[in-house]
Structures are given as C-alpha cells and as structure tokens.
Amino acid sequence: MKKHTSRNPNFVSYVKSKIEKNYFSNHIGLTFDKIEEGYIEASAPFETFIQQQDGYVHGGFTSALCDIVCGFAGYTLVEEQQRVMTVEIKVSYFNRGIGQKIIGKGSVVKAGKQFFFCEGEVYAINNGEEILMAKATSTMAVIHKK
Amino acid sequence: MKKHTSRNPNFVSYVKSKIEKNYFSNHIGLTFDKIEEGYIEASAPFETFIQQQDGYVHGGFTSALCDIVCGFAGYTLVEEQQRVMTVEIKVSYFNRGIGQKIIGKGSVVKAGKQFFFCEGEVYAINNGEEILMAKATSTMAVIHKK
Amino acid sequence: MKKHTSRNPNFVSYVKSKIEKNYFSNHIGLTFDKIEEGYIEASAPFETFIQQQDGYVHGGFTSALCDIVCGFAGYTLVEEQQRVMTVEIKVSYFNRGIGQKIIGKGSVVKAGKQFFFCEGEVYAINNGEEILMAKATSTMAVIHKK
Amino acid sequence: MKKHTSRNPNFVSYVKSKIEKNYFSNHIGLTFDKIEEGYIEASAPFETFIQQQDGYVHGGFTSALCDIVCGFAGYTLVEEQQRVMTVEIKVSYFNRGIGQKIIGKGSVVKAGKQFFFCEGEVYAINNGEEILMAKATSTMAVIHKK
Asked: Would you call B90 an interface residue with chain D, using a CB distance cutoff of 8 Å?
C-alpha cells in the first residue's frame, strides 16, 4: 500500500473534530482506534443493537462501518476546511460476523485531486480469531472550500 | 416493474417476525410501512442520531437502510424458514439528505432460485418535497432450510 | 426519467465525432442507433466473436457495452471539448444472452457539475422476444477543457 | 492472499479447453500467461482496436479483461464440468492506460460452495513502468453439472 501524505499538517485534530460531531457513528457504538495519513481504524463491541434477527452482525451495520472508515480515511488527507463525501460504495460480504468485537479498517488507495478511491475491510474478533467479514470499495469526492 | 409471487402464503407475518427481532433496524429508528410481494418500504424520522457532522443524513445510515429494505424485500418472496443474506450491495449517493423524514424503498428485480437481484431507493421528505438521496443495487442469496 | 438538457447545442455531431474514432466499439461490432440528450442506444449482431465458450454473449462484451452507452450518454450533455471518463461501473447479470441482436441502452440519471450518474441496460433480441441480460450503474467524471 | 486448492486435478487443461473456445477474449487480443489455482494472468498488446478516441485503452476493454481474468480464476478451482458465471462485477478506474502492453490479473479471494468472490487488477506497461489502471471486485456463481 502506497504511503500518502496529508495536505493538512493538523489532520489528526481535524479528523477528531469531525468524528466528535458524527452522531451516527457514535450511535452505532464506534470508537476510533487509529487515525493515520490515509488510514482509519474503528471498532465496536458486539452489542445487541448491531445484530440482526439471527444473532449475527447486521449487514447494514457493516456497510455503515465501511462507509465511515473509508470516509474518515479520506478526511485524513484533505486540506483544513475541505470535506469528503461518499459518491458510491460497494460492500461484499464474505463471512457472517459473530464474536466480541468488530473492527473496520479504511484506506485511501488513490488520492486524486477531485476524488479518492478507498477500500475498507471489516473483521470480527471471535475468541482471538480474526474473521474477514466484508470488503468494500468506494469513491469519495473532495469538496473544496468556498 | 414485474410483479412477483411469494413462495410463502404467510409472507407478511413471516417478514414481521424477522423485523421484530432485527435489533439494528430498530436501533436506527426504522418503522416498516409497506410489506408487499417483492417490495418493502421503511422510514425514519430525521433524528440527530442518523446525521453526520454537517447535519445531513449519514451515508452509513443510508447504506444500512438500502440493505434493510432490499433484504426484507427478498424475505417477502422466500419459503417459510428460508433466509436471505446480502452477498453484495452498491449504493450511489445522488443528493444530500435533509428534511423531516427519510424513506427507503426496496424491490426484488429478479428472483432466481439461488439469489435475488434487488434495488433500493432512499428519499428525504423536506417540507413536502421528495428528494432522491441514493440508489442501490444488491445481490441477495437465498439460504435454503436444512 | 427526468429529461436532460445538453450544454452543447451541437451534441449529436460532437458525439458522432467521438464515436467515429472509438476503435474498440467498432471492433466489437457496435452501431449507434439513438443519440438523444442524456440517452444512447447501440446494438450489435450476434456474431461469434462476442460469444463465450458456451455460445452465450460474453459477460465482458456486456460490461463493455454498458460502459460505452453510459459514457456516450454522458457525452451528449457536456460542453464542446469537454470529455467524459468512467470513474467506476457495476454490472449485474440477470439472464444469459442468446438471439439475433444485442441492444445496449445508456441513460444519464443525474447530471452534476463534476460527475454524472448513469444507468445501462442490455437486452438480447431472440426471435422477437426481448430478454433483459444485464443492468449497470456507473459514475462518470466530466473532464473540463483546459 | 490465501492459497486455494482446486477441486479439479486437471484444472490447467480444463481451463485451457474453455479459453480456446472463448471467442470474445481472442477477438480482443488476449493471451493467457499464467493459469494457477485461483489465479489467472492475461495480456494484450496495445493494438489500436483496444483504444478509445483519445488513444487510451478503452474502459470497456478494461472491464472485459477484469471479467475474463476473474471468471477464469474461478474456473481453475471448480470441478470438471462445472461452470462459472459472472453474477456482478464492479470496476474502478484509477489511471488512464497507455503503453506497449496491458496485463490483467484475476484472483479468487473467497471460494464458497455456491459462489466465489474474485478480484481483478489491470496494469499498463509503459516503457518498463507498470501503471495500475483499474481494480475490480466480482461475484461469480458456480454452476453445478446436471
């Protein structure tokens, strides 16, 4: 994976200021564990409210987690005041999720001027074993400040 | 849109029994407004907890809503005891979401034996105006009872 | 489907000038049957060279056809000298293709300033019956002239 | 990348027998350079007929190449007489393609019983430099012999 350089020297505090006000990611139980240039890691405990009717992680939680880690991975690279918006995202579901903790990893794969290509992965940690639940690919638009 | 025929005469109660235990869709505020053969409509009020940092609907909520209405649209057609699981979903974001109510519509477009192709749409209702926020296409696998 | 207005009054001749030099679409047998604002229709006879090993239309031909009709649908709307490039495309395969003629239809669904959302459909005409082979969704970038 | 084991000890000759009759992949100039368990590599010289109107590789060629290497990667793993068909494919275009040779690489990422998740990459070789043109993710169905 190519290393990216942020256009914002204060990207950690900029991303944290966005995360703080991101009501939906808080509502679904996410904590942000890594904020690096072009990379975000977030996780959630296996609460009942992220599950579907058979006791597995809900696919909607998984797609939301992919969107969140991809989007904030984009935010680590843009200039102060620029914003990142999802143009489209595709999520493929590899394995059912069950365990104690769910982890999402988002990376910027290519950072263009107008949009970024990002990729996400979601893992379930089940008794120490890491299961790949889903992979995502996404296009993110960079919204320039006015 | 072609009309589908359910393989389950009791599909309404079957789908309702699944929705009831779907913790995640309850957690993000969804109510199910229509349960028809091959079609589901669900909505949520514009609560703060479905928003991102700029006051718009979070893209992760939108993708989750697409997944939920597409998946339950699949559930309306399968046999009692069969289940439906998302293989993959792609969501394209057309417009930002703001308003008083968010509506998701999911349809089965083609019902094969082993998997269904579904499509979803998400609208924001803002002062009576209906804005198309997102469109989704999805592949759902039919899990046969053992 | 919302009607679009081209930013180029001479869009028909502009698109034709692009099609003429589009070696790949000629190579795979395409003829362009309709060039309208935000809409393109192209077709090919069921030649052996568009088939795979079982005598059906090759999925790669189908995805190429989707890309071509979506891309040129975008070209009908842009200004003279602007170009349209595919950011991403997803194709879902509904039915195998066999028959006498294959038709692709591409539409711009939303025309933004920087990119367009397009949708494609591919049909096989088999003894007068029209079979939906595939549906596509695509993001196209508008490349502004320098 | 996890190593896969074919369900067919004669997978090389089985795949070759399919490639031979694959008219479309021949028509667009492909040669198959590697046939391994869960992995296919194919390439084409930079002929005029794979180009679009600006002298770059046509996006439709690229999506077709992704479909072909992903599909045949699936064919390396199935039983004799089983077939592999594309359910859906998404291609993201990272860079324009220009050079002397185009290479496609397809891998099976997860081999389930009923379907495979595959990923593809397309590179342009330009004066010895390798440029990543596109990445693809795909779902392939395993068609069981009757």
From this structure: yes
Q: Which of the 8 DSSP states describes residue C1?
A: -
Domains and CATH numbers, chain A: 11-143 (3.10.129.10)
Which residue type occupies B128?
G
The conformation of residue B99, written as its DSSP 8-state character, comes to: S
DSSP tag of B46: -
Q: What is the spatial distance between Cα C10 and Cα B143, in angstroms, rounded to a whole number?
A: 53
Task: Give tens-digit pLDDT for B42-96.
Answer: 999 999 999 999 999 999 999 999 999 999 999 999 999 999 999 999 999 999 9
ipTM computed for the complex: 0.96
Q: Closest Cα partner for A68 from B72, B52, B123?
A: B52
Contact check, Cβ <8 Å, C59/D67: yes
Which one-letter DSSP state was computed for residue B57? B
Q: Nearest-CA neighbor of C94 among C123, C71, C117?
A: C123
Which residue in the set B92, B110, B117 is minimally distant from C117, CB to CB? B92
**Contact C110/B at CB under 8 A:** yes
Return the closest-CA partner of residue D83 out of B35, B126, C9, C53. Answer: C53
* Contacting residues of A for B146, CB less than 8 Å apart: none
Q: What is the pLDDT of residues C11-48, one digit of tens each?
A: 999 999 999 999 999 999 999 999 999 999 999 999 99
